[in-house]
Here is the input.
Amino acid sequence: ASGSFSDLQDLENAVLNLNLSGNDLGRLLGLFGIQRLQGEPFAVDLDAERQGPTFVVRKSRLRIADAELEAEARLPRFPSLDDSNIRATIKGKNFERFRGALGIPGASTGAYSLAFDLNLDPAGVEIVKLDLLSELVRATIHGQLGEAAAFAGSQFQFEVEAVSIATVGKAFGMPPMLDRPATVSGAIEMGEDSIRTRGPVSVSSLDIEGSVDGRIVLAPGIRGSDFTVELGGPDLAELVREFATVEGIPAQPYDVAGGLRFDGENLRFSDVLGEVGSSSVRADGEVRIDQGFAGLRVDFDLAGPALEDLVADLGAIELQPGPYELSSDCLLYTS
Here is the structure.
């Protein structure tokens, strides 16, 4: 390592050229009070300079946990990111090892790459772009950073393709979700303790299409989150089987919309309206999501021109075909 300093007390003016390697980056950073990293061998190559409030990284390279990070940056108000220009890339062959070293939640393994850019647009707004590619997820995010603490007020547009919704959701402590691929795209705004959509977010998963509009609370199990959801597909019975074994669900196309709220161990749904096959449906209720969707309680109305299309077989009960109306408030399923 080599460098020059005008004042070792505050390092307001400094030039630094650093080549450093070792067997445990976590132990090294622990000397400075940084406990995030686990023990991993590392190598650092840095060419940087600070002149007053301006900090410039002409070249930096970090190798850790089978990953290689390269970055260039100009921070005119260091240590603030205001008005900064930053470009960074990370790539490696073992995402699981990299996540473990940094203590980052997730489920992706295998090869991965991440590109990050932060720049100012002509109006002086800080614009960020993030591209992630792994074996489980491909994501593109771009938008503007907010000025509040924890970047509250930041607004982003995004598109995410996931190999398995269930695997991604489980990794981040979310309730049970569909075990199938999906593409999600839309716009969001960051709050201090939540993420709010800016218009409906579209969701596409094989033969299922839908949209979500609402608020995700950044709490365990996304407790307190509430959405307006629209969902449509060719087979309601197949959709229900993704979550639980429930007999008697009609194998009919569906197109429904309503409100959802995650209330601790319960998922509450309200003002659900739509169609199942040729029948119209209205429903309100709740389901326990901490015990394999046990205890589904529902208040519903059904009406249609052909009962035989909705219920194909009632066992020993003879089914009278034709128009029908049905209302009930009942417990449908327990385990």
Notes: The mean pLDDT is 82. The first strand starts at residue 2 and ends at 5. Residues 143 and 156 are 4 Å apart (CA to CA).
